[in-house]
Each structure stands twice: as C-alpha cells, then as structure tokens.
Amino acid sequence: MSLLSSLLVLIVSARLLGGLFARLGQPPMLGEILAGLVLGPAMLDLIQPNAALAGVSELAVFLIILSAGLEIRFADIFGAMRGRGMLVALLGFTLPFVAGLLTGFLFGKDLMRTLFLGLCISITALPVAVKLLEGLGILHTPIARYALATAVINDVAALFILGILLEVPQHESVVDSLGIIGSASWKLLALVLGLIMLNRLLEWLDRRQFSLRAVPEAMVRYFGPEALFGIVVVFVLVFGIVSEWLGFHVVIGAFFGALFLDERHFFASRYQELRGTLASVTGGFLAPVFFAYLGLEFTAEAFEDLLFPVVVTLVSIASKVAAGWWGGRLVGMDRQEALGLGCVLNGRGLMELVVAGIAYQNGFVDQSMFSTLVLMGIVTTLLTPILFRRAYPREALERYRRAADADAPPSHDSDAR
Fold it and tell me: Residue 139 in 3-state DSSP?
C-alpha cells in the first residue's frame, strides 16, 4: 500500500475510533492506537510500519510536544515546586520509578530497558489529569492542585531524564556509562539554566513595559497572518536544534522552547488563533497518525510471555495509587481524598507513549518492551476515571465538590497550575 493510501486509511480509521472512544468518555488516543493495532501486523496486517510513516510519526511527536509546552508556563513549573506540592510530586515520581526498576531487575532486563521501564511507569500525563478533573468539576479542589503540580513536575522530570538516557550509548560498561551520564547531565543543566536566564530576561523586559507582542506582530505584518504558525514552529525548532547540537533529542529543546509561548507574547486573538491552528494540524491529522503508528508497531509475538506485561501493568497502577495516597496523607488529606489523588495520578496517556516511542525508535527498548509500555499506558489511562469513580461515588463526589466550593480559597485555581 502506498504512503498516501496508508495515511488515508490510518487517518480515517483513527478518527472514527477516536471519536467513538471520546463519546464513551475516554481519551481519543486509545481508539487511535486501537485503529493501528487492528490494521497492522497484530491483526489484519493491511499496513506495515515503514520509514515513510515513521517520518510522519516523528513530525507528529514534535508538534505534540509543542502543544504540551503551550499548556505549561515557566510560572507553572516554579509554582508547582513551592510548598507541599513538591513533596507529593517527588513521591509521585520516585516511588513508581523505583518500583519500575525493581520490576525490570526481577525479570532480568538490562540496565537501559530497566531505566526506561521505570521512567515510563513514573509519568503522570498532564492532559489526562486536566481532562478528568475538569470533567468531574473539581479543578478548584486540593486533589486538583496537588495532581496538576505533580503532573507538571513529573512531565518535566521525565523529559530531563529522557535527554540524559538518550546520550548513553548501549553496550557500554557501567563506569563509562556513569561518565557519559555525568557529562550529559551537565549539558542538559546548562541548557535548562540558559532557558531560565532567557525567561528572566523576558520578565525583566515585561516589567520595563517593553511590548513583547511587538515582535511577532511585526513579523505577522511582514509575512502575513497565515505565517504565524510557521513563525512559531521555526522559533521552537531553533531550541530543538540547539538541543540536538548538544546531543539530545530534538523534542527536549522543543518542549522547553514552547514554554516561552504564552499570552504575554501575543495578542489574545493571535494566541487563540495559534492554538486553534496547532490543534487542527496536530489533533486533526498528525496526532492520530502517531498513535495509530504506535498500534502498527504491535506484534502478536511480543505478548508470548504474558506474565511480564501483566506484572508491569499491576505494578504501575499500584505504585502510582500508593504514591498519591502516601503523599496526600503527608500533606493532610483524609483517606478518601488521598486515594482519589492517587487514582488521578495513575493516568499516563500521551507523555508516556511519546517517551516509549522515542525509546523504541532509537533502539533502547525491544519490540516486547515497547509493546508492554504501550499496553501499560493504554490500560492505566482507561482505568484512571474508573478507579476515581470507585474512590468517589456520585454522592461522595458531589459532597466533596460542594465542600470545595464553600471552603477553597480563590487562589486554589492558580495554585493548581
């Protein structure tokens, strides 16, 4: 099947199944992955993974990460690091990461596969958490505040560690690997410090009444309003190229570059126009192709030994719920509230799948491990709303919502970001 024919079949199937899952109250990406699984070698074998589709998928990853960066600001990250939210975030990342490492060593996996297993288990997807909390009407509650702070810090930490792991060649000795990790850590830290200094400069200019909006507006006037999307992509690509020059994956720099793109730099109408264009290109075309391509990568042989994926999935669920419950209790939540927090943190979704895809494309995990990671991401995302509703039945959730409406300070909404 030609590239255009494959894309046509993938997009139509992914959009149809994604829409069906959305109507069922689940993330559309689950239906999009299912479309690839049905069309690929695992079932009907109509479309094979190939270099051309992999190239489209890589472009999709770039724009997906750009979209994720647009949803987070530097202020969000610094705000999440203040107060008791940092304690919950550290537990929410560290406990599942260690659980993943122990599981990998228990099954005799090599060091690199074990590290990626721990990394994928430790992720909490910010979009999944936001969508669930918004749908339940509890974005103003303590559960939301701590869950979103944890998701922000976990996503940033995951990309930070991913950048380091991608620098480590396979089959190196432990001593050599430690040296490379140390060097990569310094380079990545220098990149992050440079970005923080640039952000401070922009804040300083903003305080001096320098209109940051003037630059993109001047470029739009020169190139035309339809060039706004291209201007933003080029801006973020510069950060991606710097990241690649330092030896990291392009998405590391792209994510941090996208953090600079917030309402301060655009007029409100331009910012909404940018988000709308990005949503159309990414959500309407490239993201479904990416998730469907993940489904294509599945093979039946990858699950000949069912014990490993079953154990990984159970460990991922148990460790995240336990970390959320423990962190919630430490910051003063009651048992039900802490359990609800743990259930929200269990959703991995997009970020975990992106990390798994990058690891597989770069040869750091094999087919079996990749399929296990994708399966774990799908199952945990599906179970997140189900587990939360078990922790908070309808009547209990309504009482919790009313109590938060009456007692929560107005600043809670901004704190949650």
Answer: coil
